[in-house]
Predict the 3D structure of the following.
Amino acid sequence: MKILLFGNSSKESGGPAQVMKILNKILENKYNDEVEILDTNTQITNKNLKIKISKFDLIHIHELWSIQTIKLTHFAEKLGIPYLFTFHGVLNNWSLKKNKFLKKVFLQIFKKKILLKSSAFHFLNKLELLEANEIYQKFNKKSFILQNGIELNKNVKLKEILNTSNHKKENLNLLFLGRIHSKKGLIPLINTIKLAKEEKFKVNLNIVGPKSAHCDYLKTMVEKYELDNQVKFLPAIYEMSEKKILFNQNDYFILPSYDEADSVAVKEALANNLPIIVSKECKIQDVEKKEIGYLISHNPKDILKKLIMIKNNSNLYTSLQQNSSEYANKNFDILKITEAYRNNLIDIVSGVKYSDNWI
């Protein structure tokens, strides 16, 4: 197949860029598909855009709020090329609150191109679909559900990694890795660290991500509360070899987000034997039931109580590590997920629904 992936491909943009990159790699290497990523910000004339997309069998769109998206769907329709959307959570209730009026107008004006003429919609989980249904009740008629996958290193023995754990240290070491954005819940987390300092509970927070206005604001909070020894800001990293070092240096991956679609960073942490501390909005099913980590709210006092409980139950940590690795290997294998994804694309191009993950 000849497949065009369209979206913001910059590393700093977050999950969609990472998803497109790995899909590109596997579809080309394993299936010999011809795949190209067209960045949202590419400057291209309408004539050249039409010529460019004419060679593809299918277009997969990973960017919604862009006039380039509308141009792309317009020419795809004219050329008879099927296209589908993955929304990556931008239709979630929390995300729609920002610039709510403009987004509502955008969807109303371009409803035909986005909702009616699209060949399919890809949702990352049932919860994302449920929230999107509040906007458009007919998503179910042509949608499939398939989560994000990650590359797994199955050659590393779990025992080798467990032996390098730093969890026996006196401090509880927490890692946040991702875009530093207001939706990630880092403000209540820093307030939690402030409370911990006041109660002499030893916890460190490493915030790793690209520069942003929100990052600057968080730094002013840390300075104001004199938390420089407890909270560290580190530059963004993108290579797994560098991520593995951070995963090994910390005890838990923490993400108290107000809104997520399907966090790749959480999955990478689990795959590297790092248990997670997340909010329910991260949409990770059965976190505590599967014993891969803990759930928290957005209330600093409640978060602190949970952190103290976690530290007091350090004897469970090795079990949490092992469960995390096993859970990731069972559920997140990108090769299996890409195979299912490609079958969905074949269905779309062929005009059938043979795959069992269609709604």
In short: The longest strand covers residues 2-7. Residues 15-31 form the longest helix (17 residues). The radius of gyration is 21 Å.
